[in-house]
Design a protein that fits this description.
The chain has 27 helices and 13 strands. With 624 residues, it is an alpha/beta fold.
Length: 624
Amino acid sequence: MERGRRKRMILELLKKHFGYESFRPFQEEIIEHCLLGKNALVLMPTGGGKSLCYQIPALAFSGLTVVVSPLVALMKDQVDALNANGIPAAFWNSTLSPSEMTQVEAKAAQGRIKLLYLAPERLTKPEVRHFLRTLSISLIAVDEAHCISEWGHDFRPDYRNMLLHQYFPGIPVMALTATANARVRDDIVSHLKLEEGRIFRSSFNRPNLTYRVLPKKRSFDRLLAELKRRPESSAIIYCFSRKSTEKIAADLRANGVKAAAYHAGLTSAERTRVQERFIRDQTPVITATIAFGMGIDKPDVRLIVHMDLPKSAEGYYQETGRAGRDGLPSDCLLFFSTGDRVKHEYFIRGMEDPEERQRTRRQLQEMMKYGELRTCRRAFLLNYFGEAWPEANCGACDICVPPAATESDAEAPTEFDRDLFEQLRALRRRLAEDARVPPYMIFGDKTLQEMARSFPQHTERLAQVFGVGKGKLAQFGEPFLQVIRSYASERGIGEQDVAQTVVRSRASTRRALTSTMLETVRLFDAKETPERIAEIRNIGVGTVIQHLEKALEQGRALDASHVTFSSEERLTRIAEAFRKTGNDFLAPVRAQLGDSYSYDELRFARLILKTAPRHGVAQEEVLV
């Protein structure tokens, strides 16, 4: 198949099954490489879209894709999510009864499933290998591939015993991980025989995450305050011991927070119940040991807290990576005390293997450095994985931004209708309960926010919204359209252009200005217009306006007296529309004024109104 046709095909699969119009960085390149039947190691951060890298090829291949996944308990959720998107998938593990196992085997043999999930220990069994070799397998995807390395933070011997190159020669292998330094990467390539493949390494930076470290003193009070500021938001609280998870969960419940503990001391049934309640938004807060979280696809976790020092930077990065997988702003908080080292040292001294002791102590020392940093935390984490951070200020950690400015953006203004969003969330919850699936499998928060921003009222418009695929449109589209139509009709709001709305991928918390923003401000202070600045700097006018608005958010005083608007009459109308809405959101203003007012024009007007209020209306009355 020639490349142009292949690109069109994978984009069509992406939109049909997942509702996305375009790929994230590296995804398309990885998929095309895989479709050529080549091996690959994919290094991509949690939330970066690793799963799509093998799920799209699985749909394109004629044969079966086998997915090796380490946690049996989570396979059902992964398979349910695929089936909800119209993709035939199954898991094959010890939780199934003999008759269910036979059904899965029959479907696989008949070519009725595209993806088959199984655990690495299953692949070590001769009878399983024999059965798989009777099938037409197009691809083997090894998820959480860092588990193959003794140098990784979660080594599992069964990963080394799969011997894929020996028992499944000629079948391309894709290894995927979110946490692998250079030594772990070399181990993966060596043991899976990927030397002739290609390594795809995307940035480990998670721009929507804010990193903070606080002293352990009064940690519970601070934790409670963090959770109270995010009512109903999902959060994972990591603790050092089982006893701590139980105590903190009990204390949180005593303070009105819905919380449950999760640790290895619970029965399998108890762990499953806690996990399902968390995934279905019935228990928003989980206090857990590190046993919780790997492989969980819940995209809307807004807060990750470590009550104690993690044992390695790899583990910390992976655990914090469970926040904000949907790309929306989320927070990562570590309560730090040098005394935590003593608890870790106790276990290190009990290790019999001197190499393991040395390796574990070295990993712990890196986490101690992180807790005691006086430089950018984001830069430290990226450097640990061999990636340089080019900016002097990341704008999203407690070192780069004053503590008061790095707190969660939970109450910060966002450009979507909050009331409609809450109504859509309530509908999603009801539909999820009826279907007995997690709410995010209906639609994610990002999709609901886009609906609450663009007010789609017809099937064709809803189909353009991020995350609305063909299957979900047919299954769930009408109930959501009914809620949106009713809400919009009562308020006289029309449909907005989906293509012109923006889904924010970074936190809208207060950020320090970058060097490029400061240069824009300098030129503006020198009385250059936005159009002239764009010309001088070879950037878009819209980017210039964004820089200036960021400066205003930081409290910079800007004088826009040298800037003129296209029409004084139009500016007055825009000012009046902002005054009526009572905030500075663009979508409600455009809904009032109509399509003849573009978003760029409204942004420009908003900038002028913030910097040079006039037209007989005080600034605080226009934009609150």
